[in-house]
Specification:
single chain
């Protein structure tokens, strides 16, 4: 999926915040929300675009979006760098001057902004996220009513977001289930599952909701998911094992373990698998197995990168699991 221009620069800024050593220019990663309108107009003037609030309003009357306005003001701009630098400033001015004129790029930029705050734990409440998800559902529904395939609609909207939009929705629903907010979690599952046909993450989330009232049925549902071999990712299997550590039956936990072991690719995933297994045995008062896995974790604490299935630690762990659960 190719990201739209604003989403691309939002992603670059997110990566830069995580790793300031990334090679980039200041304008590419600057948070323009903190720059005054006066300074934005001055910077535009330096690259040959004379604007003011009044002129912006006149020009904007001829356009439906900041992207169209940028093309109107820079019709023959061949310097991509200067074009994008101007676009980012025009975008920010549009966002402030025309709050009533929501475009898809403006909406998704705000969604990215709120997701960043949420993931950093800096939101005082979930209300902005809940409002954004409600608006997203409305946008998706309006387009679906026009006959466009749901998955295509979601893919198009996602191209305006720097974050993995579906991934965030799944994580957010998972957090709701952790907080036992099953009503809202169920509502979001039904709202967004139609836009990810074939994605069994939503089936797993449904099973997790079910587990709050009927663990036996939830285990049955998860066991059915494990039959969808080609759709099982390492991330999903790790979450299934995390769930099984608390709710699972031995046979289901073992089934998930057999699925994930041949799929392991990174040391990080292997350590996560060891940690979840340690938790599983701790909850079942198997101190001997808990300590055996702890020793493997200690041995791997300074290991990183890719992992090979021929690694002796994987073989040792596999034998331990199969001997005690098989």
């Amino acid at each position: 999926m190719n990201l739209q221009t604003k989403a691309l620069y939002n992603l670059l800024r997110l990566n830069y915040v995580s790793d300031p050593s990334l090679p980039c220019e200041k304008w590419q990663v600057e948070d323009l929300r903190s720059v005054s309108m006066e300074l934005l107009f001055k910077r535009l003037a330096k690259i040959g675009i004379e604007l003011s609030s009044e002129r912006m309003h006149r020009f904007a009357d001829e356009c439906d979006s900041p992207e169209e306005l940028t093309e109107l003001l820079l019709p023959d701009q061949e310097d991509l760098k200067q074009h994008d630098e101007a676009y980012l400033m025009i975008f920010e001015l549009w966002r402030r001057l025309f709050p009533e004129r929501q475009t898809l790029s403006i909406f998704c930029d705000e969604l990215d902004y709120q997701i960043s705050f949420f993931e950093a734990g800096e939101l005082e409440s979930d209300e902005p996220i809940q409002d954004a998800l409600a608006n997203l559902d409305e946008i998706l529904s309006e387009n679906a009513d026009g006959g466009i395939k749901p998955a295509k609609i979601f893919e198009k909207i996602s191209s305006y977001c720097a974050h993995d939009l579906m991934g965030f929705i799944i994580d957010y629903i998972s957090n709701l289930i952790d907080a036992q907010n099953q009503l809202y979690a169920s509502e979001l599952i039904e709202d967004f599952a139609p836009y990810a046909p074939g994605l069994i993450w939503f089936d797993f989330l449904r099973a997790r909701v079910t587990a709050l009232t009927d663990p036996v049925e939830a285990n049955r549902a998860v066991n059915e998911l494990l039959k969808c071999d080609e759709k099982l990712s390492v991330d999903l299997l790790l979450e299934i094992l995390r769930f099984q550590a608390g709710y699972g039956e031995k046979a289901v936990f073992l089934g998930a373990m057999k699925k994930i072991l041949p799929r392991l690719e990174t040391e990080e995933d292997f350590r996560e698998l060891l940690t979840l297994s340690q938790e599983y045995f701790r909850r079942r008062d198997r101190e001997d197995l808990e300590l055996a896995i702890q020793q493997l974790l200690i041995q791997r604490q300074n290991t990183s990168g890719d992992i090979h299935l021929s690694d002796p630690a994987i073989k040792t762990f596999e034998k331990l699991i199969l001997f005690n659960l098989g």
